[in-house]
Amino acid sequence: MAEHWSAQQLAGALPPLNPLANKYIRGHLHVVAGCSRYPGAAALCAAAGQRAGAGYTSVACSPEAVALVRAFRPSLVASSWDDWNWNAVAAAPRHPAAAVVGPGFDGEDDTCCRLALESLTEAATPLLLDGGALRALATPYGLARAQARGRAQRGPLVLTPHGGEAGALARATGIDDASPAETAPALARAFGAIVAVKGPTTFISDGQRLVEVNEGTAALAKAGTGDVLAGIIGALLAQGAEPFAAAVLGCTLHAWAGNSAAASHGLRSVVPEDVIEALPDAFKQLEG
């Protein structure tokens, strides 16, 4: 049976702020996202990561997306993934970091698939896969790469599929595509990952524990809000949050921000940018 975290548990999951920290100690979030068809996903994910507390947020995206990301938020450090490699993630091993890969990926694009699969072996940080990266994972080869990452202890793996993506992952691994409450722990065990199956009620599991977050709103049923969630969880991981706690807390903050945005703009009119701008309200609610 799924548990529901208390306000005390959620507050305890938030990494404390060091008053002497610099931007690197606050955590470096690496976002690999945004193909030419979906450039906005990179901007939304990275901007959400900033609002969720990452000290330094860099973006590797398609060449066509670079100008958009820079214009969306000049404080984001954006570069083409043609000029980028995983050495950038390993460049400062003394500082906390995390990577988010897949928002705005085209699951049929060779470059996107390569980057997604490479991340499993090359990212020696907490790693979150979302969006089109999950399509690359939904194969026997993707499963084998994920399991190899676990054996090599390269770092925690977090997957954030919506219901359709969770079904594809389940079918690719021979798991019965049942209810989200059953699918989340089954996928977590198969991939050696923390899995958040997104929906009106989101279920998060590490294969043993199962937590539900049921405080969301229909306002979040908009393209791009999943990119925002990936950025929030990624930022918490980059700040050193325990990975399972980061997933639970990130999903909760996302829900609260959605409700705050809906209170300001109405259920129908909320867009992902509104959810990002409502994150300060969600953190105030958490830290109360």
UniProtKB/TrEMBL annotation:
Domain YjeF C-terminal: 6-286
Reaction catalysis annotation: (6S)-NADPHX + ADP = AMP + phosphate + NADPH + H(+); (6S)-NADHX + ADP = AMP + phosphate + NADH + H(+)
Binding site for AMP: K198, G199, P200, T201, T202, G226
Keyword tags: ATP-binding, Lyase, NAD, NADP, Nucleotide-binding
Cofactor(s) named in the record: Mg(2+)
SUPFAM superfamilies on file: Ribokinase-like (SSF53613)
GO molecular function: ADP-dependent NAD(P)H-hydrate dehydratase activity; ATP binding; NAD(P)HX epimerase activity
GO terms for biological process, alphabetical: metabolite repair; nicotinamide nucleotide metabolic process
PROSITE patterns hit by this protein: YJEF_C_2, YJEF_C_3
Binding site for (6S)-NADPHX: A41, G104, H162, D227
Transmembrane segments: none
Keyword Transcription: no
Classification via PANTHER family: ATP-DEPENDENT (S)-NAD(P)H-HYDRATE DEHYDRATASE, ATP-DEPENDENT (S)-NAD(P)H-HYDRATE DEHYDRATASE FAMILY MEMBER
Similarity annotation: Belongs to the NnrD/CARKD family.
Biological role: Catalyzes the dehydration of the S-form of NAD(P)HX at the expense of ADP, which is converted to AMP. Together with NAD(P)HX epimerase, which catalyzes the epimerization of the S- and R-forms, the enzyme allows the repair of both epimers of NAD(P)HX, a damaged form of NAD(P)H that is a result of enzymatic or heat-dependent hydration.
Full protein name: ADP-dependent (S)-NAD(P)H-hydrate dehydratase
Taxonomic placement: Bacteria, Bacillati, Actinomycetota, Coriobacteriia, Coriobacteriales
Gene that this sequence comes from: nnrD
